[in-house]
Amino acid sequence: MPEGAKINAILMTMIETAKANALDPMTYIGSLLDELAQFPEWRKSSDLGDYLP
Predict the structure, then answer these.
(1) Euclidean distance between CA atoms 23 and 30, whole angstroms
(2) Which of 15, 37, 38, 40 counts the most CB atoms within 10 A of its CB?
(3) What is d(CA 2, CA 6) in angstroms, rounded to the nearest whole number?
(4) What is the pLDDT at residue 53?
(5) Which residues form the Transposase IS66 C-terminal domain (predicted)?
C-alpha cells in the first residue's frame, strides 16, 4: 500500500471513530495532537489506548 493511502486510511479511521462517539472530528484530532505532543517517549505504545474516544 502506498504511504499516502496508508496515512489517509488512518486519518479517515480517526474521523469516523470520533463521529461514532458523537465528537467533533476536528476538535478531537486537535486535542489528541496536543496531548500526544506531551507524550513521554518512555511510555509504551499500548498506553495510546487511553487516548481513544
Answers:
(1) 12
(2) 15
(3) 6
(4) 65
(5) 13-53
Q: Would you give the end-to-end CA distance of the chain in angstroms?
A: 27
Rounded CA gap, 47 and 53, in Å? 14
Is the Cα torsion angle 22, 6, 35, 49 positive or negative in sign?
Answer: positive
Of 16, 19, 20, 14, residue with least CA distance to 36 = 14
* 25-37 helix and 3-20 helix, angle to the nearest 10 degrees: 110
Dihedral of alpha carbons 40, 43, 48, 50, sign: negative
Q: What is the pLDDT of residues 2-49, one digit of tens each?
A: 888 988 998 999 999 999 999 999 999 999 889 888 877 766 777 777
